[in-house]
Amino acid sequence: MKKTAVLAIGIFLLVSCAKEDSGVPDVYVNYRFLDVEYESKRDENGLFMVSGQGVAGLMIYRISSGNYVAFDRCSTVNPGQKCAVKAEEGSAFTVIDPCSGAKFSVIDGAPAKAPAKKALKKYNVSPAVGGGYTVIN
Known about the structure:
Shape: globular
GO molecular function: 2 iron, 2 sulfur cluster binding
Order of helices and strands: HEHEEEEEEEEE
CATH architecture: 3-layer Sandwich
Number of domains: 1
Organism: Pararcticibacter amylolyticus
InterPro entries: Rieske_2Fe-2S_sf
Oligomer: single chain
Protein name: Rieske domain-containing protein
Largest sheet: 6 strands, antiparallel
């Protein structure tokens, strides 16, 4: 009985700790950028949009000095359409899916307005050897 209970709890913990699938396809991402590049290419809200990477491009946002987050611009609402989120006019904290009207947080990619239910696909950002940062999956 105890073994069964321990096994059941273990399985529950493994399942509950699994990453939520955004529905956005997995593609190879390995993009390097410098602080100078971020500063020169970011918009007035601090968003640096990169084309040609990920499924629908990358969105890079600086949380604080040396601390960046990166997401795929592909909306999680109907990801097969590969609709790229864009900066929302008048808002420094959300981006909008122009195809569905869904909104997402630039800080953590979380859904901010329906019909969004899943967060944007997040990529890892880490310091690169020789300076700058690397966005990888």
